Amino acid sequence: MTLSAKVTLQAHLKKTWQGRIGKILISLVGLLALIILLSWLLLPVYVKRVAVEQVQQQLGRKLAIGEVRFSPFALALTANDVSLYEPDQRSPALSLKTLVLNLSLSSAWHRALVIDEVRLTAPQVHVVRTSADGYGRYNFSDILDKLAAQPKSDAPFRFSLANLQLQNGSILFDDKVLEKHIKIDELQIAVPFLSNFPKEVNSFVQPMLSAKINGTPFDLKARSKPFVDSLDTTLAIDIDRLNVPAYIAYIPVPLPLKIQSAQLSTKLDLTFSRKKN
Fold first, then answer.
1. CA 181/CA 170 separation, integer angstroms
2. Which of 99, 116, 181, 188 lies 20 to 30 Å from 164, alpha-carbon distance?
């Protein structure tokens, strides 16, 4: 074979392989684009249908969801106008304007539910205490009973939730036993993370709790230590001689013992700690 023939053959083989690699790359890009398009179009419909069916099946309650959107690039799932109804299926027990879940790809290798951000906007909760015979019965006690009756799993449910935020919430507590009403509004809650397994967390919120209780402002904030390696954020919880029996009737589940007299005093430091880098 002459030198020119070898050069021609090499050029032909190179062109052939380049053409094949180009076709493979185009096919992969097209497949990825198709997956993204299908997830954007079909995942919201699937999530909405499964959520409504499972809540009805597992809790016996009606769940209504207005609109569900999914951003495949940000892995963000957004649900608008969410309402969980009372057993009469007419009165909302819980409603919220927007629920945002920023999912994480690390769920795959952790084999756990990992969410980088949870944000609830304008949740409204209606709580009714219907009786206090040994312990409190509420308008959500039927849900607790159904959950308690479900078979227990041997394997623990693993989760890691970061940057939990509740914005502009309200709670109306209707105590039928004492014929009292407690209104909590302008409720703001922020929790950096909650997890039951070790995981590096990228947290951008500071722990805080604020609200107005029957018009009286309540504010609980934490202080960070930005110049230490652990990036500690500490929330102090101090309680002085709390009369425990006065609150036993509000506990929504029966206790295995009867408390006749007790006082609770605490000086707790709730610390959220993570290492730099």
1. 13
2. 181
Residue 219 forms beta bridges with which residues?
210
| Per-residue pLDDT tens over the stretch 191-244 | 888 887 776 666 667 788 888 888 888 887 765 554 445 556 676 767 777 787
* Cβ proximity of 131 and 251 under 8 Å: no
**pLDDT at position 68 over 60:** yes
Torsion angles phi and psi, residue 24, rounded to 5: -65, -45
- pLDDT category of residue 253 using cuts at 50, 70 and 90: confident
Percent of the chain scoring above 70 in pLDDT: 75
Which residue(s) pair with 213 in the sheet? 184, 216
Q: Which amino acid is at 182?
A: I
For residue 121, give Cα distances in angstroms to 169, 183, 218: 7, 18, 19
Q: How many residues does the chain have?
A: 277
Taking the C-alpha atoms of residue 48 and residue 5, their distance in angstroms, rounded to an integer, is 64
- Say what the pLDDT of residue 12 is: 53
Give the integer Cα–Cα distance in Å for 147 and 193: 24
Whose CA is closest to 85, among 58, 54, 64?
A: 64
**Quick check: 184 and 173 in contact, CB under 8 A?**
yes
The CA distances from residue 271 to 116, 159, 198, 235, in Å, are: 20, 19, 16, 6
146: left (phi over 0), alpha (psi -120 to 50) or beta: alpha
pLDDT-derived band at 156, boundaries 50, 70, 90: confident
245 close to 257: Cβ distance less than 8 angstroms: no
